[in-house]
Design goal:
The protein is an alpha+beta fold. It is 18% helix and 30% strand. 3% of the residues are buried.
């Protein structure tokens, strides 16, 4: 799963390889935090923001039909992680609760007897 912690580690690894144009190398980065010239050198922002994770905008749809029954509402996720300042990398991550979107049961589809 590419989440903020994984992306942070991948950006750090690509920085260490350098941004030289190579056939299979990194030639640059397309994502920059707003108002900054690059990724922050310490993960303070990640520690503050990402211990609780929000569900995405997607819906969990189950069944068939035009009638929707909301079976469950969105829930935030919770994760813990370890950071190693010597390597400037996150060395472990564990989700205690996965973030979930709306769980919607679709009902009312006609039965088909073939």
């Amino acid at each position: 799963m590419l989440d903020a912690i994984t992306a942070y580690n991948e950006l750090r690894a690509s920085e260490r390889l350098g941004y030289k144009a190579r056939p299979c190398g990194v030639s640059g980065l397309a994502i920059l935090p707003s108002g900054r010239s690059g990724m922050p050198r310490t993960p303070t922002m990640l520690f503050a923001i990402n211990s609780a994770t929000s569900p995405g905008p997607d819906l969990i749809l189950e069944g068939d039909g035009d009638i929707w029954h909301i079976a469950d509402v969105p829930k935030n996720g919770v994760r813990s992680f370890n950071y190693d300042p010597a390597t400037d990398l996150f060395t472990g991550e564990k989700y205690e609760a996965i973030p979930l979107s709306f769980d919607i049961e679709e009902l009312g589809a006609p039965r088909r007897n073939w």
